[in-house]
Amino acid sequence: MPTRSEPTRWSTVAKTFHWLMALLILGNGAFALWMDGLKPSLNKINMFALHKSIGLTVLALFVLRLAWKMFDRRPPDEPAPRWQQFAAHLVHGCLYLLIVAIPLSGWAFNSAHGFPLQYFKQFNLPALVEKNEELSNTLGTVHVYLFWFLLLVLVAHIGGALKHHFIDRDDTLRRMLPFGRAKRNSPTSSGDTP
Amino acid sequence: MTLSTRRLSALAVALALPFAASAADYKVGPGSTLGFSGKFQGQQFDGSFGKFDAAISYDPANLATAKFDVSVDVATAKTGDGDRDKALPTADFFDASKFPKAHFVTTGFTKDAKGNVVANGTLTLHGVSKPVQLKVVFNPNAGGARLSVTGSLKRLDFGVGSGEYKDTGTIADDVLVNGSLNLLPN
C-alpha cells in the first residue's frame, strides 16, 4: 500500500482520511438527528457530549489532513471538460470549508449556551465565545443549516464520482476506493497495475 | 505598670467577663451569601441560595458555647444556567417539594492542627442527616462580625442525584460549600 499518492491511486493515508472522515461526519450527523429527539435526561447530556467529541475529532483529523496534503501529491484529474474540473474542485473546496465550519459553529454554539466542552471525558476545551442566549440560538441554527448545506454539496460530490464511474467509466472513484486501483495502464504508473 | 493602668486592666477584665461566659448572639444581615460549587462535565459551576436563615452564637474565646443553626430553602438554588436551575429542585436532585429545607446545626467546635476553628455539625439535606465539618473564620467588625465558612460534602451521601444522575463521571460527587455571613447583633 503506497504511503504517498500515485497517479493511479490515492495513498493509503489519503484514503484513510477520506473514508474515516466521511464515516465520522455522516455518522455524527445521523447521530445528532437521533439524539435531538431524546427526552431530557443525563443520557441525553452524555449523548450530546459524545457528539461534540466526535465533531472535535473530525476537526482534529482535518488539521492533520491539511498537514498531510502539504507533503503528499495528488493524482491528476481524469480527463473532463474544464468546467466540470472546475466544478469538482469548487465542490471539494466547499466540503473542506464545511468540515471546518460545522464543528467550529457547534463549538461556538456550545460556548454561547454556557455548556462545558469535555473531550471524551478526558479534558476540557475553552469556550470560543462568552455565554449569550441570543447568539446561542443563532449559532445552533447555523450549525444545523450548515449540515443540510453539507448534504447538498455531498450530492454533487458523490454524484460526480458516480458519473465518472458509471458514465465516463474512468478511474476517479476507483482510485479512492479502499482497495481499489486504476484499471487502465497509466504511462506514469510503476507497472504494477494489471 | 502604674497603679492607674492596673486598675484599668482590672476593670476591663471585669467588664469582659460576662461576655466571655456566654457567646454573643447574631442574626444574618444583608450582604450575606451561602453557596456551593460542583463540577459538571469536568467544569466547575458555582451556585448560591437565595433564601436562608441562621442563628449564630459565637465567641472566639469561648468555643464551648458557640452554636450555628442554619436553614436553607433548597428550591432557591441558582447556578447561572436555566436548565440546571430548573432541574435542581426536582425529584432528580433536591426534591424540594418533599424536602424544602436543608438544615445544619453544630454539635461542637474544635481546632485543627493549624489552629483553624472547625465547626462539627449535622447537615440534614434531602431527608438524610450526616456529619459535616466547616472551617470557620470569624472577624469581628464595627457593626458585628463577618463569618466565613467552607466545607465539602459528597452529594451522593445525601442522595442528591437519583437514578442516572448518580453518574459521578458527568456530575462530580464532591461539592464544596461556602458561606460568608454579615452578622448583626441579635
Structure in words:
The complex is a heterodimer of chains A (194) and B (186). Chain A is mainly alpha-helical. Chain A has helices at 12-35, 42-71, 82-113, 133-166, and strands at 118-119, 123-124. In chain A, β1 and β2 (123-124) form a beta hairpin. The radius of gyration of chain A is 19 Å and the shape is elongated. Chain B is elongated and about 70 Å long. Chain B is mostly beta strands and 186 residues long. Residues 17-21 of chain B have low confidence and may be disordered. Chain B has an eight-stranded antiparallel barrel. The chains are: A mainly alpha (194), B mainly beta (186).
Q: If you average the pLDDT of chain A, what whole number results? A: 90
Please name the two chains that share the biggest interface, counting residues whose Cβ lies under 8 Å from a Cβ on the partner chain: A-B, 15 and 13 residues
Order of strands in the sheet with the most strands of chain A? Answer: 1-2
Structural class of chain B: mainly beta
Low-confidence stretches of chain B: 17-21
The poorly predicted ranges of chain A are 185-194
Radius of gyration of chain A: 19 Å
In total, the number of strands of chain A is 2
SS field, number of helical segments of chain A: 4
